[in-house]
Amino acid sequence: MPRRNRPFALFALGLAGALALAGCASANAEEPDDGRIHVVASTNVYAQIAAEVGGDLVDATAIVSSTAQDPHSFEPSARDQLAVQRADLIIENGGGYDPFLDALIEASGSKAPVITAAEFSPDWPENAGHDDEAAGSEAEGDHEHGDHEHVEGFNEHVWYDPHTVQHVAEGIAAELSALVPAETSAIEARVTSFAAGIADLEASLAAIATDAAGADVFLTEPVALSLVEAAGLVNVAPEAFTEAVEEGQDVAPSTLLESLKLLRSGDVRILIANSQTGGAETTEVISEADSLSIPVIEFSETLPDRQTYLSWMKANIEALAGALHP
């Protein structure tokens, strides 16, 4: 079942109707004003980063937070729509990853500033390298929603690139400072601390690159590709395999056979799968890797319970390093 390219207009129309009903039901309910900035993010990855940067200043809500939920196929609720309607700041991944949030913004009529993480990536098509000033957050009212289709050739899983995430955190800090200028110094101190944590992650990735540069790994889909590349590892999975799995389609028999031959070659050091998606072909290559004593690592798309972004990425990097030296 394809996970992308759902009819956006019909989706947004349905949300608009549900939002109107939800709005009527809560029109007389007074929302307590706790003085905090209400941040809504598409996933708990970005909500946690916002909480890290904003501290007690923010109340961060994630639309998708369960590691059992595939964000690509998520269907939002009326509660989600109201959260977006009341948000002071919105954070999305972009790049076609979370179109449900664009639909919620459009249906709610929200004018809150929007931070689009994908646009902070140096690989974003409109970036000539990374432009801290141009990428990411749009001025109020300037952000066009509903046009964030999957971008061909762009790996939208940008939260697995610590360098990009540092710039996302800086973008969040800039928006929070604009909303509450009196808290700028405290916000800047927190984002500086977060950047130090990112530097530690990058140092660990560099150590893997020094130790095992060029080692072959097999990714069933590109969710953790940025992390793998930062570690100097090479994804040798056939592009047709990863594309089919990512799109929720069947892998062609010839492609599956090619993949199994790769695993049997003895050159693949690690198989990396997505713990939140998969299919029969993914199960088959995992089983084959297990039979060949190739270490298998599963990475998720959302933040596991009781983890911060930094602790989660640290654990993922340690898993990579450990799998290279079982």
UniProtKB/TrEMBL annotation:
<feature type="signal peptide">
    <location>
        <begin position="1"/>
        <end position="29"/>
    </location>
</feature>
<keyword id="KW-0732">Signal</keyword>
<keyword id="KW-0479">Metal-binding</keyword>
<dbReference type="InterPro" id="IPR006127">
    <property type="entry name" value="ZnuA-like"/>
</dbReference>
<keyword id="KW-0813">Transport</keyword>
<protein>
    <submittedName>
        <fullName>Metal ABC transporter solute-binding protein, Zn/Mn family</fullName>
    </submittedName>
</protein>
<feature type="region of interest" description="Disordered">
    <location>
        <begin position="121"/>
        <end position="148"/>
    </location>
</feature>
<dbReference type="Pfam" id="PF01297">
    <property type="entry name" value="ZnuA"/>
</dbReference>
<dbReference type="InterPro" id="IPR050492">
    <property type="entry name" value="Bact_metal-bind_prot9"/>
</dbReference>
